[in-house]
Structure formats: C-alpha cells, structure tokens
Amino acid sequence: MPRFFRRFGRSAFMSVLAAALVAAPLSAAPTALAAEPPGVTRAYEVEPVGGVPSGCTTPAGKGAAVVSSERGANASARSLLVNDTSTTSHTVITCPLDPAAGTSLSFAAFPVSVPNGFLMSLLGRWQGGASGVIYHLNVQSNGAIQWYDGTRWSPLAPAGTVHVGAWNTFRIDGGALAAQVSVNGTAVGTAKRAGTAAVLDLTGYQFASNGTAPTGDKVFFDDVRTTAGRGYETEAADAVPTGCSTPAGKAAGVVSTLRANTGSRSLRLNDRATDKQTVITCPVVPQRGIDLKLAVYPVALAQGFQISLLGHMEGFADRRLVFHIAVGADGSLRWYDGNFWTTVSPPGVVRIGAWNQLAVRVAADEEEAQVSVNGVRQLAGGPIGMRRVTDLTAFEVSSNGTAPTGDEVFVDDVSALPAPDVPAPGAVEVGPAVTVDSVTNDLLQMPHSAVNTGAEAIVTYGAHPDVTASNGTRIATSSDQGASWRPQPSRNPMPNEQSYMLSKLRNGDLLAISYHTFMRTGNRSADVESTVSHDGGQTWSAIRVGAMTTPVNMKPISSTTSRPGRTMGGFVLIHSVVEDPDGTLYQSGYGYYDGDARYRQLLLRSTDGGLNWTTQSTIAYSATVNGEGFCEAAVARTADGSLLAVMRTGSYLQMYQVRSTDNGKTWTAPAPLKANGVAMAGVYPSLVLLPDNRLLLYYGRPGQSLAISEDGNGTSWSPPTYVDYRNSANGSLIQTGPTTLLAFGDRGANWSLNKPTTSTIWSRTITVPPR
C-alpha cells in the first residue's frame, strides 16, 4: 500500500484525492486542436519518440506523457508512456475527439508499476456549455477500478481486474447517462457521470498518473480508438465544425440544419463563389492507411465535388494532397495522378438528390485508394506522383472548382477507421514489386521490352532521358521467375542505342531490333538495325543493317536525332514480332508519311528473319483523331487466328483497337476500347495470349493496368486491375507459366511528378485465375 494512503487512512485519502482530482486541470479537450476522428486506431508508430502525440496536449503545470519506443502492443514498436517521476505534479495527457453525443473509447494499457494507480477519463461538455470531466475512472495499485460521481469515489471492479506487468485491453462506452467499462473483453461495471447535469457531448479523453507523491506510476498506452460517427448534432449551425478548418483563400463548409442523414444537422458545402472553392479540411491522427466513411447528399452538381486525403510523401516535409478523388456532375468517379483526371466509373454511380454511402479505403502500404459507393466497389486510384506516401494526416471535402457555381453537397456521419488490410479487387493476384535495377541521382526508366527464353527472363530498359537525341540501354536477367534479378552489361546487344525490342522466334533464337530507324536517300527507305542470338541471349551476332521500305515518301519522325549525322527515319519500331509458322515476321511501327498531320500506325513484314522489312499495310490513320494519332500498337494473334492491334492515341486518351482477318493486309475501322462502359485510356499497350486462349492487355497511364478478354479475341474487356500506380506507364509483359506472367515498370521517368532521387526498374508476378 502506498505511503500516502497509509498515512491518512482510506477515508481521508479518498477525500483528499477526490478534491485534488476535481481541482486539477483534468478538463475538456481544447476545441482548436486537431481531433481524433472516430474509428482511428492510434498506434503511435509514425509519431516521433519523446514527443507529445500530435494533436494532444499537456495541461499547464503537469508532467508530459510522450511517445516511447520501449514497448508496444500487438507487435508494434511504439506506445504512449505516462511516467510519473515528479513529487509535485501529475503526468497527464489530453487528446481531443470530434464532438459526439456518445463514444466508445478502446485502448491497451500496460501498467509497469502503479504505487498510486492511473486515471482514465472521458471529457466533454455539460448542457449549458461548461466543459469538464464527464466520466472519471481510477485503476488502483491492486488492479481494482473505481469511478467518480463528482463528490466521491465508488468501487466498480475488484482487485486483480487489471493485470500489472501485462497488456490489458479496455473499452469505455460513454453515453449521456453512464459509461460501461470492459476489461480484457469482459464487461466489469458501469460508471455514472462525474456530475448531476445532463451531458451535451463528449469531446476528448485523458490518461494520467494517480497523484503527485509518491512517484513511480509508469503505464504504457497503445492502440487508442474511438468508434462514433461524427454527426454534427452538437455543433453550432453555420460554423466550421470543431477541429476542422478552411484553407486560406477558400470558402467555408459549415454545419447546417437543412438536411441530415441521421439526426438533424450535417456539414454543407455550398459553392456560390466564382473565384474560390468551398473547402473543409479535417485532421486525422497520423496513420498508415485509412477507411474513411461518409454519407453524402449532392443537391446539385454543376461541376461535382472532391474527396481528398492529405499526408506526407517520402522526401517531403510539408503536408500535401496524396490521394485525390472526384465525383463528376454526372455522378461518375475520377481520380487524379498529379497530371490528369481519369474517369473510372459510368455516370450515375453517385445519385444526385439522395443520400449515398461513400467509403474511401487505403491499405497500410498506402499504394491504392479504393472507393465504394452504396456498398459497391467502383474505383481504384493511386497517389499523386511518384513518391511513396508515408502517412495520412487529414481528409478534405470540397466543391469541384471555382466557376461556374452551383455545387451543393451535404456530408454526414463521417468516420475514419483504420484499414490494415484492403483486399485487392477481382481475382487477379499482383505480387510485390521486385527491384530489377536501381541507381541514385541518375536515370533508369521505361522497360520497353522483355522476353522469356525458357531458361531465364530478360528485360531491357533505358538509361537516358526521354528525348529523341539521347541513348543508352541496360539489360537484366532472372533465372528464378522474377524472384531476383542480375544486371548483365556484358550481354547487352545494343548498349548505345535508345532502346530495342526483344522477341523469341519459333526456332528458339532471340531477335533484337533497334527502336530508331535512319533515313536513306529518297525517303522511301530507312536503315533498320538488328542482331540475333542463338544461345538464349548469352551472345549476339554483329549488328545487321537492313532496310524498311514504304510505298510513299516518309517524313522524319523527329527533327533531332539519336545518331549525329543521320536523319531519323519516318517510323520507329516497337514491341515483339508476330511470327507465322512459315517464318514470316510482322512488326509494329508508327510515324509519318510525307504530308501526315498525325501519327500513322503501320504493320511491317519480313521474310528474311527480321533483316529487311516491307510495308504490309497501314493499320490506322486519321488526320482528325483526338491527340497524337494512332501509334504504339501492340499486335498479336488472337484465339480465332486473326490479328488484333490495340493502339494509343495520346497521353491519358482513349485507346482504340482494330482487327485483320487476312494477315494484316486490311483492317477494320478503329473502335474505342471500353470496359464496363468506361473508356480505357492508356499508352504503350502489350498483348499476351494465354494457352487457355484468354487474351491479356497490359497498358499504362495512369499507372500500369491489366485487362482480360475472356473470349481471347478482344471482343470485350474486363474492368482493369491496377498492377502499379507510381510509374511512367511504359512497361512490358511476358508469360512465365500457364496463368503466370511478369510485368515490368519503373518509378517514374525524367519528366514524372515528384520522381524519387533513386531510379528503379521493377517486376511484379501476376497470376490470373484458371478458367
């Protein structure tokens, strides 16, 4: 028994302690601080050791509780430490919550030593507005629990209820009249209010040591969580909700009594300014991953509204937008990668003039945000730019622009739950990124081509800026299906070219064809350089110089050149070849005929092993198609034996496809690609036909995605599965097994937003479900 207790006796001690605790500044949480939204599990893992946790405070004259790396619950490394080493003051921490009529506070506590015990309190406001301790609990040195009614302490649970020297789990379910207390999964008692007035709301919680002398109370707290949705019922009408803020230069979202999902109040964003957005920002406890849920009622959407997550990115100290999602005026969903908005759902997913239940879920790896509307998953989107997201610290809801006005949205019942495990959508499995090659303060990017020799996988990628006049390639191999990689500079067939395309021929030979061609006199032919390996890429032949010929004059594809003294040819050659049983090869190329206003997509044909090429046909050309023109075509045999070409038209623009049933002599009119009624935008597509006759389409921008044609002919495409988000969108795909593949990408090109200082080429194993 503590000396202080023995000296005064039980009744005297309890009277003194009660008076001291009531007089101490164990008060309601300051409303100006960032509140901990309902549902967040605060594990302190991203908070600095030795500091008071973000958003929490130490009352004046009290000792500080700080983040500690000495112990953590559930295999975590950090926790909150209340360590009483002072004979003159408590050790106290106060943390605000979003005001709510009721809340459930759960946490883990590890009492190392408690000669006095420790305190747990829910703070709030009484009817009439006075702030104070609403529910006040005392864990004694023997593990018993008491509760305080404003005048005296009463027993709640017997000795031994709380274990000293072990982690205990607590839950305090506080309402307007009482709080039920559970310890280690068992309800142990009910505490009454620490006063006689009616409770208006609960606004915070507090942990503290249990007295000033003697010292020695040492308790760790971890995994703190509340689970009550923010309904704005106790918030002042026409005011910004407590703890939230309006960014400088923006119009405010305020509490409204006009409409509510539950109760009578909600948050209203009513855009009536032509020169500013209406925006509200609400902090969350710094965390990895989130499950943000909110009810939204769009009254009218001239442009739409946005939901954003804010946090930090690797290498940046400032808080910034890290995930950015929008609902369009037509009720469709879009996401933003830092350069462009991509629509990923059909119109009408979010209903106008009705309450919708939205959920934005980000897993702990913070690579993807998934959005569900009314219980149905509708969107997957990535972060902004190339940097890794390190934490999430706030969410933001806003109107979708400045002019025109007219966006009016009500928001209610907001919660921010943790999301440590967000299942990947669909049945396609995407493995973790494996580093193929990396370099710091230099460039590696765009793994344009890869091949499976049977003994190993080979991938080639650029080591230069993405401009015509630059050169330099690298090559790497894997003999374990992409589990590990080894750069192979001595085996690189074209180290000084801009890039080259790899193919495995029917006889087992490997063919490498240079991406760039160089004009010959007369502009109807151009040099094509290639090399062949007869031993799986261990060695290569001397560079062969053949020709591609066209029926009309070509126009140089660029005014600059990668080879000083030579003019660029009219076309560049991309992707692996298609080979017929008789050895005829077909090669994709795009560029310009003389007079072309946009790119022209060609199919070339070779009957001498890829040395010389003639023009088989124009796959597609239009002087008026939106963007750059038809280009970067992936060409493959489909399940029915026809040739399918999938083409880019521009960055973030819709792809098109065409079909030939006569070996590429003629083609159907270009048809826009769609999945589930949504345009499929992308660049640098790749096609792979599986042994079971399913056709796979791998493409980029934004990110890298995989779509499946179940009939093997490209008649229809599944909604895409995102393989990776943070990349230049120029990658490649090869088959490694009946249902397994290796996908390749990078961590951004030289022009990418927020590109890391370390350039990386990666591979991921993709497994598609069997039929």
The outline comes out as elongated
Multimer state? single chain
Strand content is over 45%
User: What is the structural class?
Assistant: mainly beta
When the domains are counted, the total is: 3
The number of helical runs is: 2
The major sheet is characterized as: 9 strands, mixed
Cα gyration radius (Å): 32 Å
Ranges where pLDDT stays below 50 over 5 or more residues in a row are 1-32
Calculate the terminal CA-CA distance, rounded to whole Å.
Answer: 70 Å
Keywords, separated by commas or semicolons:
771 residues, nine-stranded mixed β-sheet, Jelly Rolls, 2 helices, 3 domains, eight-stranded antiparallel β-sheet, 3% helix, mainly beta
Task: Report on the architecture of this protein.
- The protein folds into three domains: 3-226, Jelly Rolls (Sandwich); 251-417, Jelly Rolls, CATH 2.60.120.200; 429-767, 6 Propeller (Neuraminidase).
- Helix content is 3%, strand content 46%.
- Strands 36, 37, 38, 39, 40, 41, 42, 43 and 44 form a nine-stranded mixed beta sheet that branches. Strands 1, 3, 4, 6, 11, 12, 13 and 15 form an eight-stranded antiparallel beta sheet that branches. Strands 2-5-14-7-8-9-10 form a seven-stranded mixed beta sheet, with no helix packed on it.
- The termini are far apart.
- Residues 1-34 form the signal peptide.
- Belongs to the glycosyl hydrolase 33 family.
